[in-house]
Amino acid sequence: MLSEKLQRVMLYCRWVDLATYREVTRPHMKRHIPFPLNLFLPKKMHLDVMEKLRLYGISTKEQAYVIARDCYTALNAKLESVDTPYFFGDQPSALDVAVFGHIVDALGNSQLAPTVHQHAPLLITLAERIRDAYFGAPGEQPTSLSEEAVYSENQANYFTTTALDSAFMKKVSPPLQVAFLKPYRSLDWSRRELASEVNQKKREKEAEKRAAANEEQDKAFEKGPRNVIIGAIAALLLYAIAALPVAVQFGDDDDDDEYYEDDDDDEYEDEK
């Protein structure tokens, strides 16, 4: 259940959800993949995960969150059925550790967090217990996961020391398959809405700038090239009119004909 269904849900949240992919996953991958692979490999991985999840019947976030809800309900019922603090006794097992790792990541996603709080309150208690036992500083007061994250890069990692940093293959570059192992906290919904509003305002400003530029171009065209074109057309028309042949006649043709006919009659009578 954890290694298949819930893992696919987290794959959807990281790679398919557009807000998380564009704002978290893709920038993170580009920083850790060498050039020029970082130009196209994140997009390819994004498309590959989308196709893989589509084959498993997960193509929308509603489908992903329904699967998560059912898994949380089943795990919560399993933990409720035992009288021990962990799934299989008084000490955490591999299942407890896997649940802890998933709950940590799920509570960092504001779309999954309400589902976890509603359907898996005992899993949150389990994660708090593991966090306080193994990830807390000496003398630190336990806190509720409802108030803050269990563990993320926003909270200090007490296992990270200078000695450990130098011991773990510091000078060896990780392969591409594990370049995404660094934990991160998904953007919450409020930050997504803020980013969406900022992007929308940027698009509106760009549209206004383009409209103003087009208006200025239209005005410039009205004052410049259009007047030149109109003047050229008018000059051509005037030249054509001036080149036309013009015949000027004085008097009336009918009156002239009658005049000549009268003269012919007078001459004929004089001869008689």
TrEMBL record:
Parts of the chain that traverse the membrane: 228-248
Pfam families, A to Z: GST_C_6, Tom37
Segments forming domain Metaxin glutathione S-transferase: 68-129
GO biological process: protein targeting to mitochondrion; protein transport
Region (Disordered): 196-218, 251-272
Domain (Mitochondrial outer membrane transport complex Sam37/metaxin N-terminal) ranges: 1-45
Protein name: Unnamed protein product
Organism: Phytophthora lilii
Lineage of source species: Eukaryota, Sar, Stramenopiles, Oomycota, Peronosporomycetes
